[in-house]
Task: structure prediction
Amino acid sequence: MTKSFSAEKIRQDFPNLSITVHGKPLVYLDNAATTLKPQCVIDRIQQHYQKETSNVHRGVHYLSERATAEFEKVREKVRCFLNAAHSSEIIFTKGTTDSINLIAHSYGRTFLQKGDEFIISEMEHHSNIVPWQMLRDEKGIILKIIPIDDTGAYSVEDFQKLLTPRTKFVSLVYISNSLGTINPVAQIITLAHKQNIPVLIDGAQTVNHIPVDVQKLDCDFFVFSGHKLFGPTGVGVLYGKTHQLKVMPPYQGGGDMISSVTFEKTTYNVLPYKFEAGTPHIAGVIGLGAAIDYVMAIGFENIMSYEQSLLEYGTRALSKIPQLRLIGTAKHKAAILSFVHPDIHAHDLGTLVDEQGIAIRTGHHCTQPVMKHFGVPATARASLAFYNTQQDIDHLIDAIIYANTIFNQNYE
Result:
């Protein structure tokens, strides 16, 4: 971590961190749900609406050409961010869920047949389960699940056991949103490709924690959401290898994804526009570009080093509370801390913590199979970002101790 990195200085870039909640300064520990937005992102979106408002790709007037140039500039920025080979491999979507559904409907419906096997893991977000179940029910494919152990991890060997000549697709999360586990996706991609099996990686919880190089990973598809990367909601990215995207039919029909239309026949546009029907979230894409600039200016070396120190500090602090049980203790983790209390339901704990001005997430986190594995209905989750501090964690610990006091009084 370089000497220039200062979490306290970075905090000044985020206006949300200056508000009070229930009369107390906000402590925001719900970054896995969505990250806060720096002022530069807010300003860039405002600038677009004030000075650049126009539709893209369709106009010859000044505003349209300017908006188009700014929009396409972000596509190239995302290409560099992921180290994709071509900007045409970057497709803008509504988010991770939309991107996965695009692959399920376009690639899945076209190339998966009855009896084909499809591998996901036990820790997947519902967004990487439900679309494939829908395809299973429609096409008769077979879902196979990589089991996790009691640390919240799975092994490459467990994956290998599921591979058969009938395996036709693999879709896995890189970093678990409810456990923080960093999965061995590079090894899995290598093994899958030895049998010519395409792999999709859900990077929703990845791009704000660690750098991603899709060419080095060699994944066929990679997806993420802007709002997890300090950018706007409603915008996301699907990266796909050119040869995969070329053979996939469009997911939706309408404007901008066409080359020509007659009542007899429609011909489709080239990549990436073939998959971008209708007016896109122009301001959202431009805001995403500003968010990428912001993150890259901080640097992933700084982000990873600092967040790892927060994770270690938070793990030690929570482990000192006898009643708490940490859920997700894998060796390789991102800055996510999930836990349960034997006497306080996660929702009650979340409410009491909120009274102290602290935002955490409670529930199943759209990973109900994970909750079932650990035998709990829900967890409380504190998810960290580079603007969090050890003091934030201390406030959380104090709030949990306060909740203990309240419930102990109620039991007497």
